[in-house]
Specification:
Chain lengths: 379, 227
């Protein structure tokens, strides 16, 4: 747990970087410090491990005042990862990862074991990478090692300053996904700095949105998107906040039963009748084992052609955990505007369509209107 | 002349060997001193908030380099005599060479340490390294090749300056040169000059190799990639 109370930071040159910051990060929570460049995110984060001294106020880690620790001891118990990674070029991958264990004077064997374990955790093969040097790694691999190093001595708390910043968007997205999986396993208390709203929504349990040294709103991503506190927040999260909100939902949260499903060996005439009755243009076709194999259009059912001859294999399918924003873009790219949601074995779980997503957004909007109306009546 | 020089060389190999050993000995002693003092001073002035001191130290070290060696020997002889220490021979020459060697070593140590990527230092500090650990585990290993380059410069330069030390009785490969000048014997001068140059070239090659060997492996790879 991390708690900041009335924290102020004024730099020697007079810059008031942080003003009256109050914030609590619960145990195991992923908190993202978000805001435009220069708003004081890095300063706030670095005060937690005393890389930057507080001008006034208090910071507690697990209810203990950070000023009561020796700064180096404090830092060895708080994981730290920075934007430019800062791997030591003269040390091998394992020596880099074992930096804090080395400082804590673990035995060499224990350091090696730990480095191996962490390399596996971040998805790198220890037998390949343990003895490599940072200069022999790709940018993404270096970032992974940076993350592994911050977990070196298994700290309860992690501070991460734009750890996926200096990397191409595709690799970044992959690293984010991987890190979320890791976090689901290790459940660290995390203070994570970014200026990227997308990253904040994707990663954070909570988002602390800052502006000019002050905390403007501290909420979970859905609340931040749905109920922006003021004009600044509304603008910062962007006009497309509704679309951004889609990433918070998964396909399985909103998918529906398909109105009509068709077995591959069914009689085409009966299928056509069923589809006309339920007024559907496209139906899902499944094989003998209930696995989804494609779509059939009612217009294509003519004459004596069997289903097998006229069904169309899918261009894309999604899984139950696909975020809705991705599902939406898949739909746009598919020819039929409907997306089949399948489990790992290819069995059909449900469908998503534009209508389903629109209905869901409609509900959100009306709830929000009710809310603002209600609060308007109160005041 | 070359014929005669060769004859002289063959006849007096033992003497030349003795001078060479003397020469190398002076160089080694002087440069060990220069490295110890230079690296210590270099590390000291690279500390936070010591930029002014650093500027001054490097300035004085550069002025030292501009003093002609004969004049420096003269000054040192005066100082040593007043301290009733041996004012000719080995001691003043070693002191002079140490002083000449300081600038490249101090300058390179200072620059190398100052130029270590601040992200690396930040990462080290953020993980709980103390200042000494940052110096020993990050700054110095990364600075060593550059410090070695400074040493190489200092030693090669000093091999030439040490020859002049023979003038005040320190022995070494300056002996044949000064004898040759006194006795109009160009063959002696040639032998001395060639030996000094050869020594400088060999030491330069050896030090170059050493510079490579002391470069941390991970940094070598990076250098190779860049080139
Ligand atoms: N060492 C420093 N000295 C003076 N001002 C600083 C220093 N570090 C940061 N600042 C200023 O403090 C403000 C907040 O900086 P920072 O916390 O780095 O912002 P962010 O991480 O949100 O981009 C900025 O205006 C920045 O210029
Ligand atoms: Mg920052």
């Amino acid at each position: 747990m991390i708690r900041l109370e009335n924290v102020y930071k004024t730099y020697p040159d007079g810059t008031e970087a942080v003003k009256d910051l109050n914030l609590e990060i619960s145990k195991g929570e992923f908190c993202v410090f978000l805001g435009p460049s220069g708003c004081g995110k890095t300063t706030s984060m670095k005060m937690i491990n005393r890389l930057i001294s507080l001008t006034s106020g208090k910071i507690y880690v697990d209810d203990k005042d950070i000023m009561s620790f020796n700064p180096n001891e404090l830092r060895r118990n708080i994981g730290y990862a920075i934007q430019n990674i800062g791997l030591f070029p003269h040390l091998t991958v394992w020596e880099n990862i074992a930096t804090v264990p080395m400082l804590k004077k673990w035995s060499k064997q224990k350091q090696l074991d730990r480095a191996e374990e962490l390399l596996e955790l971040v998805g790198m093969d220890p037998s390949v990478f343990m003895y490599r040097y940072p200069s022999e790694l790709s940018g993404g691999q270096q970032q992974r090692v940076g993350v592994a190093r911050s977990l070196g001595a298994d700290p309860d708390i992690l501070l991460m300053d734009e750890p996926f910043g200096a990397i191409d968007p595709i690799t970044r997205s992959k690293l984010q996904d991987e890190f979320l999986k890791i976090q689901a396993k290790i459940k660290k208390t995390i203070a994570f700095v970014t200026h990227d709203i997308e990253e904040a929504i994707k990663m954070g349990d909570k988002i602390a949105l800052m502006k000019a040294g002050r905390l403007v709103q501290y909420d979970d991503p859905a609340t931040l998107l749905t109920y922006p506190k003021d004009e600044f927040v509304r603008n910062f999260v962007g006009a497309d906040r509704v679309l951004k909100g889609l990433r918070l939902y998964k396909a399985k949260d909103v998918m529906k039963e398909p109105p009509v499903t068709v077995k591959i060996d069914e009689d085409p005439a009966r299928v056509k009748k069923r589809m006309e009755e339920s007024n559907t243009k496209w139906s899902m076709v499944t094989d003998e084992k209930d696995r989804f194999i494609g779509w059939i259009a009612s217009d294509d059912i003519k004459g004596s052609k069997s289903i097998k001859e006229i069904y169309k294999p899918p261009t894309v399918t999604a899984g139950p955990d696909t975020p809705l924003n991705e599902a939406l873009s898949m739909m746009i790219n598919s020819t039929i505007g409907t997306l089949a949601i399948l489990d790992e074995d290819g069995k059909m779980l449900g469908v998503l369509s534009f209508d389903i997503i629109r209905d869901m957004l409609g509900q959100e909007e009306s709830e929000q209107q009710k809310e603002t109306k209600a609060s308007g009546e109160k005041s | 002349m070359w014929q005669e020089a060769w004859q002289y060389f063959l006849k007096n190999t033992d003497k030349i060997l003795k001078w060479t050993v003397q020469h190398i000995y002076i160089i080694i002693v002087a440069n060990v001193c220069a490295v110890i003092i230079g690296v210590t001073v270099g590390i000291f002035i690279s500390g936070k908030g010591r930029e002014r001191i650093a500027e001054m130290v490097i300035y004085f070290a550069s002025i030292m380099m501009t003093i002609p060696s004969l004049a420096l020997y003269g000054i040192l002889m005066g100082i040593l005599a007043s301290l009733s220490l041996p004012s000719i021979g080995f001691l003043p020459v070693v002191i002079a060479l140490t002083l000449y060697g300081l600038l490249p070593i101090i300058r390179n140590t200072y620059t190398a340490i100052r130029e270590v990527d601040p992200d690396m230092i930040e990462a080290g500090r953020g993980m709980g390294m103390g200042e000494t650990q940052i110096l020993l585990k990050i700054k110095l290993p990364l600075a060593v090749p550059v410090i070695m380059a400074g040493m190489r410069q200092a030693i090669v330069m000093n091999i030439g300056i040490a020859a002049i030390g023979s003038y005040i009785g320190a022995g070494g490969l300056g002996q044949p040169i000064f004898r040759g000048i006194a006795n109009y014997r160009t063959d002696l001068i040639a032998v001395g000059a060639v030996c000094v140059s050869l020594l400088a070239i060999i030491v330069d090659v050896v030090m170059g190799r050493l510079e490579w060997l002391t470069t941390p492996k991970g940094v070598r790879i990076r250098l190779r990639r860049k080139s």
